[in-house]
Predict the structure.
Amino acid sequence: MAPPLSGTTPRRGWSIAVVLIGVFVSSLDLFIVNIAFPDLERAFPSAGLSDLSWVLSAYAITFAAFLAPAGRWADRAGRKRAYLAGLVLFTLASAACAAAPSLGALVAARTLQAVGGGLMLPSSLGLLLPLFPPHKRGAAVGLWSAMGGAAAALGPPVGGLLVQAGWQWVFLVNLPIGVAACAVGVWALREIRDESSTSPDVLGALVLAVTVGAVVAAIVQGESWGWTSGRVLGMFALGALGVVFSAVRAVRHPAPVIEPAILRIRAVALANVATVLFFAGFGAMILASVLFLTGLWHHSVLRSGLEIAPGPLMAAVCAVPGGLLATKYGNYVVGFAGSLLFAVGGVLWATATATDVAYVSAFLPAGLIAGAGAGLALPSLSGAATLPLPPERFATGTALVSMCRQVGLALGAAVVAAVLGARPDLGAFHTAYFFMAVCGLTGGLALLGIRDSASRRVPAPVAQGASPR
């Protein structure tokens, strides 16, 4: 057994850096792809907005379905192994995205990329939290969330610069980062595994993917197929059947995709519900803002990226203080305050923006307020969903909350695609921003149901437990 990575040893520092780089790269890819949307529209002119939205949705759906079984596998086979395998696959799939000759090939490569991200993300927090003493893990969650915020801040301007050379470069940028992180991670990371963890539920993961995919497809295609058509109603029915199957499977399978023992902790269950709602608003905000600036105000991709950046930058700045405040005052208090600010930003966008350009007086203030709210809410959501768990369940808990994030992002992007696909005018954008505000507010209200985030914990496994190797 290796000695603990405590203090400020170089190996501990490199371990933290490598884990955070993985979080940064996977988040950067999401925001860069959003800013590249107008270029993708030009690259694939025969595809409509609903078709192009699958570049985002296929990633989010696959990511969501794969996260929970990947978290279980990471606990069992080793978090270092899972993290590095995910990083390698993510890097190779990024190269495949850049080389994609068609929209179908790009969506397929994005699906592989999502599998790599699904392996990386749950193991990342599972590797990071044991590197901090218990009283500093709230700050660690804030740091973990801040990397996503920093990627969100850098994504739009970096993406705007990269697409000047072609949309392929938004994927090629992952290659040197991924190779360097893999090389350092092999040396620096320490293996951590739970010997008592059981095999993941592959069938349950596939059913979950079909369930989310059916609901997203129904929302995206509802306008073109007809909301009362047999295909749309059939998709919704398939989604409902998938929910029932998943609920039954969760009770009967020894290692279900959604673990009932974890969800019986009220703080964890409510945090995951809040996460779906909040990230539906977050996904709507990302796509709507890119299309608003490039489509309605006709700004260039580079200019739009720079104009979007202050909001995510504010989120990154507020994330670490948000984690510290959540540790002191409670995740539900800080998370609700952040969700409320996020909703206020959506309302401002929906009421203050117009066809006439008014960036400084209308768009920028709303972005800064929404960004500050997201910076407070994100670590609270992650902390409420993971910190009540024992260390042996950090990867599994992270996988579950990350799955909820991706489900929310997919649904938010689907709603925006449906609203703007019908009539991409000012009223449609205002509807999308009101949807963002409602999702943020209801997510915050769900967090208010949490009173003691450490009240009931999942018992640690009896056999051997989680041991560092």
